[in-house]
Amino acid sequence: MGDIALNIQNIRRRVEMAARRVNRDPSDVRIIGVTKTISESAMAEAAQCGITDFGENKAQEIVRKHDTFEGSPITWHMIGHLQTNKVKSIINKVSMIHSVDSERLAREISRHAIAEEIMAKIMVEINIANEPSKFGVADVEAVEFVRRVAGFGNVFVVGLMCIAPETLNSVENREYFEKMRKIFIDIKSKRVDNGHMTHLSMGMTGDFEAAVECGSTMVRIGTGIFGARDSTTTG
Ligand SMILES: *Cc1c(COP(=O)(O)O)cnc(C)c1O
Question: Quick check: CB of 167 below 6 Å from ligand 1?
């Protein structure tokens, strides 16, 4: 078996163990292969192993790779900061936009979804640790933000997403994942999401086990599957 196949086996096993520790069904956690800067051949190898959800952080890269995988059962996820002028290029190519961080962006997604006669599935990115370097809606504004955006035409707010602080120790981010879960439950109980909120997109290579233990339904794994990225090209 190649490195990618072995890595995927390893990540799957760890997701499964984390889920079982908290009595969750491991099949409720989707593993998204984060493929920014990763070659199409390496991506094809992952797809062979059943990783068919790909997460990218640049619109151009989605457009380019989408063509390469035309005809394959791949699901694309936009997970990076999205400029409003790039919405049009990906709206018909992605299954979900995880990284909606402003009302202006949500409005633009809504506008294009209406024009294309589709329902756009979006998640609201929360800057859960209030880091100045990160995008995202403040935790205290999350409920009100979802309330407003859930009213936009042709938009389903299907979840919340966060990028927790970089850490070498998964456990350190548990407090942030717990906070995310609380906001998620709060939104559902106040019914401001129109009933579409089902996903918590949280957990990366360094911290996905704690995220799964706190209710993540989508872990976004890059280096854990594909190895270290070329640091000169990561965004
Ligand atoms: C790069 C990236 C990831 C994956 O990070 P790894 O630590 O390589 O697993 C996950 N989410 C987002 C938003 C990213 O940009």
Answer: no
